[in-house]
Design goal:
The longest helix has 18 residues, at 140-157. The relative contact order is 0.17. The chain has one domain (2-234): Endonuclease/exonuclease/phosphatase (Deoxyribonuclease I, Chain A, 4-Layer Sandwich), CATH 3.60.10.10. It contains 6 helices and 12 strands. It is globular and about 45 Å long. It has helices at 16-30, 53-61, 74-77, 140-157, 172-179, 186-189; strands spanning 2-9, 34-43, 65-73, 86-94, 98-105, 117-124, 128-135, 162-166, 183-185, 203-208, 212-217, 229-234. By secondary structure, the chain is α+β, with helices and mostly antiparallel strands.
């Protein structure tokens, strides 16, 4: 079966009013079967408590199924900056029924100020689809450890999911070395820059070896500080 998947780090509420319509229009234009968002916030400085950005976006795009994982409590993580209810996480939207949800907190290293976690949903399409939305720590070492932890989780669960999001990997060859025997990588299908201000690639899509990429876009449409990924996949 063919799938279209879009991944966007929406950059929380930074200049959000200027970018919101661009994000919504981009999603509507590409009309993905599966949409994965990172840096989604529930921040009472910008929304009523509980009316997080995923909920707001879905009022516009009307996906029948979506899930939001509040990974980080910013008030606890950085009290010097956030003196209010402010949570950030990952969201997955789907045209297919979500039959199972698992929210996995990743190991926080002593020197890491970021709290990270994975959102794992199981979808029922023509085939069962496991997808894990990720946003690893903003450090080459800690993101590497998070990738290793995620791969162990997959092996323990005996699943071959799609792994999608902001990996914060500065070295795509590390990702290739870790995953190439189990997964096909968006970057190895087509080279791209997803963090244009520093000309870096931080965002990836991994799909099981049995699947293949049909097409991939990483357009600079000023939706965020990250460029989105748009992939067509033969699953």
């Amino acid at each position: 079966m063919k799938l279209k998947l879009v991944s966007i780090n929406i950059w929380n509420y930074t200049n959000y009013q200027e970018r919101r319509s661009k994000i919504i229009n981009f999603i509507k234009k590409h009309n993905p079967d599966i949409l994965v968002l990172q840096e989604v916030r529930d921040d009472v400085d910008f929304n009523e408590k509980g009316n997080n950005q995923a909920k707001q976006i879905n009022e516009e795009i009307n996906y029948p199924y979506y899930e939001f994982y509040e990974v980080t409590d910013k008030q606890k993580e950085r009290p010097e900056k956030y003196n209010r209810h402010c949570k950030e996480g990952t969201a997955i939207f789907s045209k297919f029924p979500i039959t199972k949800v698992e929210k996995i907190q990743l190991t926080k290293q002593p020197d890491d100020r970021y709290t990270c976690g994975n959102l794992h949903v199981t979808l029922q399409a023509k085939k069962k689809i496991d997808i894990i939305g990720v946003h690893f720590s903003n450090s080459s070492l800690f993101s590497l450890l998070h990738m290793i932890e995620t791969l162990k989780y997959c092996r323990d669960k005996k699943i071959k999911p799609m792994i999608v999001g902001d990996f914060n990997f500065l070295h795509p060859n590390w990702l290739y070395d870790l995953t190439s025997y189990e997964f096909n990588s968006s970057y190895n299908f087509k080279k791209y820059i997803s963090y244009p201000s520093k000309k870096e690639t931080l965002d990836y899509i991994l799909i099981p070896k049995k699947s293949k990429f049909v097409s991939l876009l990483c357009p600079d449409e000023e939706l965020s500080d990250h460029n989105p990924l748009v992939a067509e996949i033969e699953y």
